[in-house]
């Protein structure tokens, strides 16, 4: 039986955007409506709807919601989120974060401060897989550098935010990477190659621009670090590059970090359990949001909303390039609306996958484009968590930072160029894994 397409199926998403954006506009605080609560309201609204001309019992709709929210891809994503949180918590507790930052600052040339800060932040965010963690670690040091050298603090914060979005986009263990590869059925190395080829020119251009903007000859000082404390990050990067399963990668990093922390006396065995639990708690909201969004999208699909959107988008798309522009516009708009690039990928991912299959777009490319554009917009919206955090640490308005988010803007520029030129091209076809 042919599935009926209906705009009704899109109403849960429209409802969410209205209450989320409406609350932000009315309160002047876009964090006024927590994402999890907003999606729970949207799920309740979705359960009140039905297919045009049909009647589905509440029990059946709850069953559809539960099966979609408990889909294997989403549950695996939740477990990976938890492990990523545990790793960051252990790395923080055993001093890995401070050591990797201080190592970079100890060798940072004083006549190339901004490029140096960007490189340190890029390495840190790639290692940790978290933009918020990178900003938390590096922004206070950036403020100190700005005070000592006289460099515009908004420029320094823009550099820090840009470096944080580098890892948020490219790291093997970032939640955006996990969301992109799981929704498109590709591996982290495949996505990294496609993604990296597109943003590499943006990195180079950013470093060149920052080198012209970098000034000052102040003595930044000497920072203490221990190389042994950086080993967990080396393990994470090395095992990921070897192609290990992401859960094995995270497990290895947690094990090594825990062992070093115990040997160095940073915590005892019982305290270790507490730090592991702390990290998992950090990711609980995101995990629950992923499940709720999965359920809502399942109902939207059942009501014909996804097919309706596909039909309307496809009606405007006549080529592969058009499909790529369609998927990146969708994920970008979702990020601007939700201020969460991971959620925007989770929401847009299934639709992007269908568009990719219809227009024969390599899923490695789709995963890379979704991550690039969602991360880029996350780095320039002034009400997003990253800019709010950086601005709060620097005691300036987040709007002041936006013009200096150089790397984020260049990600968009080179992302668009990649679509227009069709670069990178893949010699071998790739079949997405249906897991």
Automatic annotation (TrEMBL):
It holds the Pfam family Na_H_antiporter. Keywords: Antiport, Cell membrane, Membrane, Transmembrane, Transmembrane helix, Transport. One of its GO terms (cellular component) is plasma membrane. Its main location: membrane. It comes from the Bacteria. One of its GO terms (molecular function) is antiporter activity. It is found in: Cell membrane. It is a multi-pass membrane protein. The chain crosses the membrane at residues 7-26, 32-49, 70-91, 111-139, 194-215, 286-305, 325-348, 369-394, 406-426. Residues 76-182, 237-423 form the Na+/H+ antiporter NhaC-like C-terminal domain. Belongs to the NhaC Na(+)/H(+) (TC 2.A.35) antiporter family. This is Na+/H+ antiporter NhaC family protein. It comes from Wansuia hejianensis.
């Amino acid at each position: 039986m042919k599935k009926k397409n209906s705009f009704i199926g899109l109403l849960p998403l429209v409802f969410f955007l209205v209450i989320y954006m409406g609350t932000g506009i009315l309160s002047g605080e876009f964090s006024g409506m927590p994402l999890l609560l907003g999606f729970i309201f949207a799920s309740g609204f979705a359960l009140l709807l039905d297919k045009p001309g049909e009647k589905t019992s509440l029990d059946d709709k709850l069953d559809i919601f539960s099966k979609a929210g408990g889909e294997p891809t989403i549950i695996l994503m939740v477990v990976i989120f938890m492990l990523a949180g545990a790793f960051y918590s252990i790395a923080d507790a055993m001093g890995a974060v401070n050591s990797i930052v201080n190592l970079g600052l100890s060798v940072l040339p004083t006549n190339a401060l901004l490029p140096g800060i960007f490189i340190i932040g890029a390495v840190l965010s790639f290692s940790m897989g978290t933009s918020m963690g990178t900003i938390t670690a590096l922004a206070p040091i950036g403020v100190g550098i700005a005070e000592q050298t006289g460099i515009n603090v908004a420029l320094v914060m823009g550099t820090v935010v840009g470096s944080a979005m580098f890892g948020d986009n490219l790291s093997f263990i970032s939640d955006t990477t996990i969301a992109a590869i799981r929704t498109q059925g590709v591996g982290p190395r495949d996505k990294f190659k496609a993604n990296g080829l597109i943003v590499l020119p943006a990195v180079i251009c950013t470093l060149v621009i920052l080198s012209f903007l970098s000034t000052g000859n102040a003595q930044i000082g000497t920072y203490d670090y221990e190389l042994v404390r950086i080993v967990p990050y080396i393990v994470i990067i090395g095992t990921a590059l070897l192609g290990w399963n992401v859960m094995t990668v995270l497990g290895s990093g947690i094990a090594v970090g825990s062992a070093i922390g115990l040997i160095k006396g940073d915590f005892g065995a019982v305290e270790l359990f507490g730090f592991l639990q702390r990290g998992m708690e950090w990711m609980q909201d995101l995990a629950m949001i992923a499940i709720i969004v999965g359920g809502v999208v399942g109902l939207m699909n059942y009501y014909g909303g996804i097919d309706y959107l596909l039909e309307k988008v496809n009606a405007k798309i006549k080529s592969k390039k058009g499909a790529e522009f369609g998927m990146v516009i969708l994920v970008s708009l979702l990020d601007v609306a939700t201020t969460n690039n991971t959620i925007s990928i989770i929401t847009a991912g299934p639709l992007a996958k269908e568009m990719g299959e219809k227009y024969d777009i390599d899923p490695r490319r789709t995963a890379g484009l979704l991550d690039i554009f969602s991360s880029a917009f996350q780095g320039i919206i002034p009400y997003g968590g990253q800019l709010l955090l950086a601005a709060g640490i620097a005691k300036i308005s987040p709007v002041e930072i936006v013009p200096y988010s150089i790397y984020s803007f260049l990600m968009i520029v080179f992302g668009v160029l990649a679509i227009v030129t069709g670069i990178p091209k893949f010699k071998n076809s790739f079949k997405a894994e249906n897991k």
